[in-house]
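Entry, Tuesday afternoon. Goal for today is a structural model of the target with nicotinamide-adenine-dinucleotide bound, before we commit to ordering more compound. Inputs were pasted exactly as handed over by J.K., no edits. I checked the ligand SMILES twice against the vendor sheet because last time a stereocentre got dropped in transcription.
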Amino acid sequence: MNNCIIFGGGGFIGSHLTEELLKRNYNVTVFDKINFSKDNLRSFKDKIKIIEGDFNNEYDLLNSLDGIDYVFHLVSSTLPASSNDNPVYDVESNLVSTLRLLQDVVKRKIKKVIFVSSGGTVYGIPKSTPIKEEHPRHPICSYGITKKTIEDYLYMFNFLYGLDYTIFRLANPYGERQNPLYAQGVIPVFLKKIILNEEIVIWGDGSVRRDYIYIKDAILPLVNSLEYKSDNKVFNLGSGTGYSVNELLDKIKRITGIDAKVRYVEGRKLDVPVSILDISLLKKEMNYLPKIDIETGIEITYKYLKEVLT
Ligand SMILES: NC(=O)c1ccc[n+]([C@@H]2O[C@H](COP(=O)([O-])OP(=O)(O)OC[C@H]3O[C@@H](n4cnc5c(N)ncnc54)[C@H](O)[C@@H]3O)[C@@H](O)[C@H]2O)c1
């Protein structure tokens, strides 16, 4: 009765989520790409079921749902920056496949869908911070528009067919297993460059402010939401505190004791100047309380990356 499937479960967030679900005695199926690296799942691989398939393949998708009670949707084929290069691909690979998933979820009367949306992009340029859930959504990248549209379809599927769901508008998670080679995740990217004595490139003047949340704090509400029943369906998920890229870099330099080589290049139009989330609704409704402060989180991530990279 407690069978969960995580689409994108082999990735950074999915692997931490899997671990926490196992701790709480849920049965976990991880659905990820054919031949995906199992490194993130290594220490608990024999406790889960793994399905290798393509989220964009109708049959792979539908065949994976037998006996499932809860669906976590963590697949994304694009990143905020790359999504604007090909919005058609973004919509086809993320939105259309999600609609197929939701239709089947309704047919099978699956109990709930948990969707990881994006706190940093769905709102667009905020009118004020910290940003509350009611703030208007005007994304300025295709990735954000796709996330926003999936949110709207979840609302529609709930209204028309009674599908239960929770949406988490996630800020900037960081920590172990986040791939430092990706364009997303400034903390592991900076740490990797420092460890390998490479130059750090900063878009703009480093004043862009973001809300950073340690991964093990971030995944707790995702698990707690399985048992949560309410009309509140949308939650910001972050730390509620913001740091500029320059402040973050100073902290990283202090913690590692290494003075990085830094080069500033022209800013990108798609980066909103500030994104700090108001997390009071999640605190009130699910007793959410992030425990790991930014300094401790950077130290943990630094220690992890030093072991992986050297
Ligand atoms: N990391 C962040 O900063 C962040 C912030 C807000 C929201 N999110 C969202 O959280 C979710 C998970 O992010 P993450 O950081 O763990 O990313 P990730 O890239 O580490 O994990 C995503 C997983 O999805 C899998 N995947 C992608 N396309 C697939 C396909 N067609 N078929 C099967 N599997 C496929 C990948 O192989 C990967 O393992 C995404 O939806 C992302 O948009 C991430």
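The chain has a mean pLDDT of 96.
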